[in-house]
Amino acid sequence: MTDRGPLAAVSPLDGRYARYTEPLVPYASERALMRARVEVEVEYLLALADLDATPLTVSDDQRAALRDLYDAFDDEDASVVKRLETEGYGEYSATNHDVKAIEYFIRLGMPDGLDADHWIHFGLTSEDVNNLAHRLLVKPAAEDVLVPELRAIRDTLVEMAHDYGDLAMLARTHGQPATPTTFGKEMAVYASRLGQAIARIERAADALSGKLAGASGTYAAHHAAYPDVDWPAFAREFVASLGLDHEPLTTQVNPCDDLEVLFDAVRGANNVLLDMDRDMWLYVSDRYLGQQTVEGETGSSTMPHKVNPIDFENSEGNLSKANSDLVFLGDYVTNSRLQRDLSDSTVKRNVGSAFAYCLIAYGKCQNGLAKVVPNEQVMAEELADTPEIIGEAVQTILRREGHDDAYEQVKKATRGKDVTIEDFRAMFAELDVSDDVRAELDALTPAGYTGLAAQLAEQA
Q: In this protein, which residues make up the domain named Fumarate lyase N-terminal (predicted)?
């Protein structure tokens, strides 16, 4: 078989989009999972050595050598682990078991003078190792890869909110002309929502929990070997040493409710961006936003003039794919037949894929935001051409002045009709109001009717 480079990749994540997903390789690749499993097994071995009940003694130099097995884990090491699993290596036959291959890898790397082969994986089930290893990868993937990209998007939105806080534009509720807003205020809304979504992701990542309780979650093997050891306390301390909360009541598997919360939090951030992508696409379509051209870029294979909002479209598509995967993952990993079935094992290998689609989308979203420029002239013309939108202000001021039929009066004059600002002023001239109120009404303009939008934009 020829070497399968990016152009032969089955998935676009490792093909077309490989350059975008590279930051996730340390957390989402099979090599990364192998390394994390080695870390769990080594640290567990050292924790056993620290128990007074066990005769295992590991010197400082031996501890350093053991930790070097995962600190220095590289492609060659990963290849050895894979060979141990699939074809055998050295004195070991093929295990056809990925966690057992890790045990044999550590045996091969056992420091001189340390007779501890029989203590590796002592009393554990594979899921004790896997649930911890997965969380050692998922946690930094969310905190160190996804969150910084989301923060970069939020920073851009905050900057746009502040720069265009007083740039009036027509709002559209139900797709129809509505009370004006400002472009900056609308960007502030997305910045605020995204900030809250980021906080939810961080809380969820910080609350990831692990288990270490054996084949049925009862510590049976541990208790049989050393009945006087407080194994739940040992597990709690060990899991905490890995930076995770301890899950005390489990079957063989960690129930994974913590992962479902994280996936849902990421999906929440994605939903904010989906909403924004679609709005930005519509603003481009309405010519409220122009797009900076990229030298040499082709917008259409047949229409040379086209400058398409492809980054927002690409972001939308990848966010939708990511959300579909995140919903599936959250639903699936929280279920297991009785005390254990293996169907979740293959499913969990796709967490990295879901995060990869997120990462691609975030980058495309940033690209799209970097290209758009508000078209102030179009915004101003649309406002001037839609004077009926001051009707809300007119009827509200008249209500204040005691006009019981204010709403009906303005509705009769404007609904379904082409009106001008002069039509409004003619109506004002006939109203039974004071000169001060009439002057207040005459001063109303669509561009000036933005309420506290500018101040609100500053809150982003």
A: 15-319
State the Cα torsion 159-164-166-167 to the nearest 10°: -160
> Which position among 59, 93, 285, 300 bears the catalytic label?
300
Handedness of CA 158, 162, 166, 169 (dihedral sign): negative
Confidence (pTM): 0.92
Active site residue 174: yes
The sign of the torsion formed by the CA atoms of 95, 108, 348, 8 equals: negative
Catalytic residue among 118, 174, 301, 305: 174
Q: Which residues of the chain have pLDDT under 50?
A: 1, 298, 300-306
CB-side neighbour CA atoms (13 Å) of 78: 14
Three-class SS state of 180: strand
Q: What is the pLDDT of residues 235-274, one digit of tens each?
A: 999 999 999 999 999 999 999 999 999 999 999 999 999 9
Two structure tokens written together for 2: 């020829």
DSSP for residue 253: S
Residue 148 corresponds to which tokens in the numbers above? Answer: 């910084």
3-state SS assignment for residue 309: coil
Q: Can you tell me the distance from the alpha carbon of 230 to that of 51, in angstroms, rounded to the nearest whole number?
A: 10
- Which DSSP state fits 89? B
Structure tokens at 5: 């480079």
Is 324 known to be catalytic? no
